[in-house]
Amino acid sequence: GNNFIAISAGYIHSLALRSDGCIVGWGYNYYGQAIPPAGNNFTAKAAGHVHSLALRSDGSIVGWGWNEYGQATPPAGNDFIAIAAGAYHSLALRSDGNIVSWGSNGYGQATPPDGSNFIAIAAGGWHSLALRSDGSITSWGSNYDPYGNWVGQATPPDGNNYVAIAAGGWHSLALRSDGSIVGWGYNGYSQATPPAGNNYITIDAGGYHSLALRSDGSIVGWGANSDGQATPPAGNNYISIAAGGWHSLALKVCQYAVAGDLNDDCKVDFYDFAIMSANWLIDCNIDPNNPACMPK
Q1: Rounded Cα distance, 101 and 118, in Å
Q2: What is the pLDDT of residue 2?
Q3: What residues does 51 pair with on adjacent strands?
Q4: Helices (H), the chain
Q5: What pLDDT does 145 receive?
Q6: Which residues of the chain have pLDDT under 70?
Q7: How far apart are CA 243 and CA 106, in angstroms?
Q8: Residue 285 and residue 214: Cα distance in Å, rounded?
Q9: b/e code 206-244 from CB counts within 10 Å (16+ = b)
Q10: Quick one: three-class SS letters along 19-55?
Q11: Phi, psi dihedrals of residue 271, rounded to the nearest 5°
Q12: Deepest of 3, 44, 57, 264, by most Cβ within 10 A of its Cβ?
């Protein structure tokens, strides 16, 4: 399809938001986490370990999937403007700048700080991040790696020049206002060591890998790469990225308009001729090896 506007990657499932406000899901679905609710009033979605969240246009939240810790049972209310799903906990940002959280809280990851000056949130494996309106970052939850070593993923760097944040399994990333990236936390696969440069506009952190979108529309990945999750496709027509547990997603658009490209896949082929045949006064031979059309 070509009507997607946003993507999210969970541990081993994925979600995408369509332009009509519907959500589609795919991947591992043992707990129903890849089967979103019906409706076309959604404006955002978030994929956690084995649960999912969606934000409705009226400001309310719905959750589905595994719910042992209550992570898929969001609070009532319709004043929410952003959501984030961690391993077994969830976050939401209210319109007044306050943060609310629910789900597993064994490391304090679901106990956000007080305050009403927050503008962005990110939920990692067992830690959480928030970006303040002054450009500084705060964090809470576990500071330990999978082996019990202190690595500090919930101890962000000082400074107030940050514009975006991302929380992975045991590491964290932040995008500076100059377009450079900083990383911290568990770095066993170099996932917390971002590439140099200051031409980045979007970041995301997966289980053990990381992604960044450049201003030219190309993607760079680093960290664990056992399944190719840190090896993005070539090209510079990407507008969004998502890093999951062991996979990655990217949303792309055509770099330029192609005459006759009716399904927006950046080329003219027999699929476009099929659309012509179905909708216009022409007959098309939709043989993929020899497509041709003529007036009826």
Answers
A1: 14
A2: 82
A3: 65
A4: 270-279
A5: 97
A6: 254-267, 269-296
A7: 24
A8: 41
A9: bbbbbbbbbeebbbbbbbbeeeebbebeeeeebebbbbb
A10: CCCCEEEEECCCCCCCCCCCCCCEEEEEECCCEEEEE
A11: -65, -40
A12: 44
**276: which 2 tokens?**
């012509």
Spatial separation of the C-alpha atoms in residues 139 and 130, rounded to whole Å? 6
Contact, 26 vs 13, CB < 8 A? yes
* Residue 267: per-residue pLDDT: 65
How far apart CA 253 and CA 150 sit, in angstroms, is 41
d(CA 179, CA 286): 46
The values of phi and psi at residue 275, to 5°, are -65, -45
CB 126 within 8 A of CB 107: yes
The dihedral over CA atoms of 17, 206, 104, 62, expressed in degrees to the nearest 10, equals 0
DSSP annotation of 150: B
Whole-Å CA distances, 111 to 87, 194, 210: 15, 28, 25
